[in-house]
UniProtKB/TrEMBL annotation:
InterPro entries from the UniProt entry: Tll0287-like_dom
Pfam families associated with the record: Tll0287-like
Domain Tll0287-like positions: 10-150
Top-level taxon in the UniProt lineage: Bacteria
UniProt-recorded name of the protein: Tll0287-like domain-containing protein
Length: 156
């Protein structure tokens, strides 16, 4: 996540938000895929509202944890340290599951903020690349999603 954040910030600063969209659409899945291949863990980003339904839809466990994160945030807990880990039994094995919350920061609003506040060129490329985009309308401080890790350590 730190690698993605640095790459995203650097691209935003040097090339602007339209180029930064390409970082999220191409670089983020590449980083997650590489880490998954190196470690044998499934590493993904899931959202409370998804930009790409093929990649960011939370499964039932992830949705439950996102709901818990919302409640924890409403009680005043910061997203910075918010995480959840659990051993989960599924039909094909036991898994270590972990999620780390992603809060919406000011810099996220260029692409994820209220639709009327997203710059026209950014909105146009988002509509082109993500025709089913629902990952807008966030405000600074909202829960946007989480990094999710899943690792099977015992087969059933």
């Amino acid at each position: 996540m730190q690698t993605l954040g640095r790459t995203l910030q650097q691209t935003m600063k040097q090339e602007g938000p339209v180029a930064a969209i390409k970082v999220c659409s191409a670089v983020a899945p590449s980083i997650a895929g590489e880490l998954s291949r190196q470690n044998g863990w499934r590493i993904t980003r899931v959202g409370t509202r998804v930009r790409n339904p093929m990649l960011g839809m939370p499964d039932a466990w992830e949705q439950q944890v996102l709901t818990q994160f919302q409640a924890r945030a409403a009680a005043g807990e910061s997203f910075k340290e918010m995480s959840h880990a659990e051993i989960v039994a599924e039909p094909n094995g036991r898994y270590f599951r972990f999620m780390k919350a992603i809060g919406t920061q000011a810099r996220c609003l260029t692409c994820h903020g209220p639709v009327g506040q997203i710059p026209a060129p950014v909105h146009a490329i988002l509509k082109q690349q993500y025709p089913f985009d629902a990952a807008t309308g966030y405000r600074q401080g909202d829960l946007r999603g989480a990094v999710s890790i899943k690792y099977r350590f015992e087969r059933m």
